[in-house]
Amino acid sequence: MTSTPTVVIGFSGxxxxxxxxxxxxxxxxxxxxxxxxEVDCSGVTETDITFIQMMVxxxxxxxxxxxxxxxxxxxxxPLLEAVTLCGAENGPRSHFWFEGRTS
Amino acid sequence: xxxxxxxxxTFRTEARELFELLETTLLDIEANPTNKELxxxxxxxxxxxxxxxxxxxxxxxxGFTHHVENAFDMLRKGQLAVSHxxxxxxxxxxxxxRTLIEEPDxxxxxxxxxxxxxxxxxxxxxxxxxxxxxTQAKAEEAKELHTFRIHFRLARExxxxxxxxxxxxxxxxxxxxxxxxxxxxxxxxxxxxxxxxCYLGWDCILTTDQPASAIDDVFMFVIDDMELKVDVVxxxxxxxxxxxxxxxxxxxxxxxxxxxxxxxxxxxLVDKGLxxxxxxxxxxxxxxxxxxxxxxxxxxxxxxxxxxxKRLDDLMDQVGELVIAQARLRxxxxxxxxxxxxxxxxxxxxxxxxxxxxxxxxxxxxxxxxFSRFRRLVRDLSRELGKEIVLTTSGEETELDKTVIERLxxxxxxxxxxxxxxxxxxxxxxxxSGKPRQGNIHLSAIHSGAQVLISIKDDGxxxxxARVRAKAEENGLIQPGAELSDSELYQLxxxxxxxxxxxxxxxxxxxxxxxxxxxxxxSLRGTIDISSTLGKGSEMTLRLPLTLAIIDGMLIRVGEGRxxxxxxxxxxxxxxxxxxxxxxxxxxxxxIRDEVVPFIRLKTLFKVDAPPEEFQRVxxxxxxxxxxxxxxxxxIGDYQTVIKxxxxxxxxxxxxxxATILGDGTVALILDVPRLIExxxxxxxxxxxx
Lengths: 103, 690
Description:
heterodimer, A: alpha/beta, Transcription Regulator spoIIAA, 4 helices, 3 strands, globular, B: alpha+beta, Helix Hairpins, five-stranded mixed beta sheet, 21 strands, flat
């Protein structure tokens, strides 16, 4: 498989239910255009579970298609707060949230 | 059996320990202002006092403590720095809380207000009020803990309706210790996802002291349209491996190795497609949560148990009776020829000796708990007197009978106050005499045979023998010009009505004290030695027996009567040959390895009318560095003795310290060795003089 260049998409400001449709479109687009997607969440100032849900869904889609999606850096700030409340450290996707890009 | 303990009394006992801990910790913090652990420990103590105080209805104490606790919370978070002023206020606050709990009626609200005002000034907070913070405190530490398994999932369109699961999770987590796992198996791939739908579910394992209704309250506003399941998790029974380990059939390492080789159940089930990895994660999280909670409980369970002192006293009495009965049994067995009986008696003897030692061990308390109480005394008094004095201690681990320790408190307070007031001078005085400005009082304890030596040593002015003499002559305690050694002079200080301090202060100098100390130490069968160097400092040494209840003794016979000499005082036994006996008549001295030892004929002393026997023995006994020989008719052997005190009618009898019951049921008197030595030395002086 010839590797396509990594696509980096960044989210900043609010990533709540109000932006949910937009965010979904951007994620879908990114996954369609490359085998490797990096999500930069460092600018996120407010988030809710729709965002977490979308990342989980994107992660599932990527795995199914043999692609990779990862965070540029371990979750922090408001995002970290939200995933911690959700109990992500005990779930099967803990490395996704807390390790970020490993390569 | 004793009545059920009064819960309030139990709380007070516990609180007393907390107060002691708090005081020590506060003093430690003062010396060590940046130690975070100490601050935490003070905070915890305050927190517990507040919480349990509210539980037992001490609302005023709880409300007051709340403010002090807040101040320590600020210290803990680094919002406030430790200052001497703060510690001063905290110590005053501790005393106030103590009054609120010990004698709520005696506490003055204005004092509380004053302390709070000072506290508010130091922490820069608005004035604090004394209104009890009931709701906050009462909810804490009260109820039993339960673990719940909570599973919930909101309706698909809940998010669009404005529900926020994160807030619900937050509320749940605030109820207690909570482990949360997100269940993601219903989240579809991105292409099929409705970005505004709610697909996630949550499993929470919550350990809380709140009732199940508190959980329902969290979901109050969304409950109509959601999936919610709450189960109580029962503590799980032990597993095979753990049971084997408990029974020492298997050690932890072997078990771990075996378990590592075994395939994990979770991964087996996932591999077979029976469950999803999410489900395994949830179950594992639950397992971990419960394990952690169980460890917490186990820690709390392994703490000490509290036993009423009365029960220990009863136990000690019973062991005493057992020791007597066992001695009678031995006597009976020795009079016959039954070998089996004799070996059984030996066995019982060994067991009862062990039982005696263990029982005495239970009553033993390290003296450190007593020493630490004096730190505050020295700190506060030296400030009041304008002196700089540090208290140092050593031998805190030395163990003494609990009763002895309790009865030592007041005498030691007197002695330390004396040192503070008369012994150590003001910084300027000290500097003028070439000493460091800071004075030192050293408190130490050490075992020495069956005795414990406790010494209070200061580096102050020392005792002036000339002043002691002048004062004693003035009070008519000695004849003018009487010949006395320094140590004899110092002993005069212990007489009633004696004080050399020219000026009476609030601390000491009223001439009461030292005689009270002497009486207290006498009642513990102890002695006080005083040594001093003028200008260098003085040292008071208390010699105390380890326990008051049982001693090892030597049984002797004089004429028809039998007596017990405490074995700890016995140095050696020698035969008194007929020539020695004759030669010594009228002179009563014995040459033991070129040393002259006076002796007392107990027969003469006890006015026994019987001719001297052929094989007399001399038991050399000692107390301090004085020795005296006691002439006896026969040494019967060692004997474990339960001391029974003499009745009030006989309290004036000086040569005996108590009585005991012998194997055949007769009574033997216990000789008071220090008094006999005094007697022996007196007769020596008299004879020297004549």
